[in-house]
Amino acid sequence: SKTYSNLIADRNNMTIQDMAVSGKTLATPADDSSVNAFSFNDYQNIDNDVDYITIMLGINDGHKNIDIHPDLTTGIIPLGNKNDDNIHTFYGAWNVVLPYLLTNYPNARIGIIVSNGLDHTDYRTATIEMAKAYGIPYIDLNGDERTPAMHRAKNENLTEVTKQILMNIILT
Prior knowledge:
172 residues, three-stranded parallel β-sheet, 5 helices, 8% strand
């Protein structure tokens, strides 16, 4: 109960609609091997009177990319490209979900948290690109000019020494 969402909700007399589930992806595998995807239908089931929408997805999408994990046989989610418009790629899922949220929740404050611990920097880049493309503020847990880096950071601007120091801080 001492998470940031609970602290904010308690302070502001708000109710939390927690859709976070371990293993959740943003995109939906084309083979329908998983319905634990935000783009499957979760984004359409957000309460109508929501004040804040915080999205932190991407780690599990990277785990399902065959280019990164060539041993995969099911549940594959390609990265795609920034012009995709289907829920079966990482970029495409952003391009379906974000316009829906902006259209259907015009009074909600929407924010994106760029996950640390991503399998590849492409997922960090894609998330930031999509946040910027839709004018949605983001916090990059991989470290940038606004946010200190966290352990498991996938930021090509950080030195390997810095990444190791961050990991050692967590391990001690």
